[in-house]
Amino acid sequence: MPKRIINFKVNGEAHEVAVEPNWTLLETVREALGYTGPKEGCGTGDCGACSMIVDGRLITSCLMLAPQADGREVRTVEGLATGGELSHVQLAFIDSGGVQCGYCLPAIALHTT
User: Fold this and answer.
1) What is the pTM of this model?
2) Within 10 Å of residue 48's Cβ, how many Cβ atoms?
C-alpha cells in the first residue's frame, strides 16, 4: 500500500508526514517526529505508557492508527511545558522525587492534567 500524507499538530506545531496506513500514532510521533516522551509498553493499550491527548481526549496511541490523526491536535508530555518552563505537574514530580525510572512518568503526568 502506498504511504499516505497526514497533516496534524503536535504540541502546537504543524506537521506533514508520509505514513504507512498501518503505522500507529505512537510510531509516527516517536520515529518520524522524534518525540521521545510517549513510550511503547504493552502494545495493547493496557499500560498507558504511550498516552497522548488527541483533541482534548486522553488516548493510548499504540492503538490509534496514524491516518486517524489527520487534521487533529496531539499533545505529548513535551507539550506540558510552556515557554521553556515545566508545568506545575512536571515540577511536582521532580520536587517529590517521584520520577522512578521515568518510563511511564510521561503518561502519568498527562493523566493528571
Assistant:
1) 0.86
2) 19
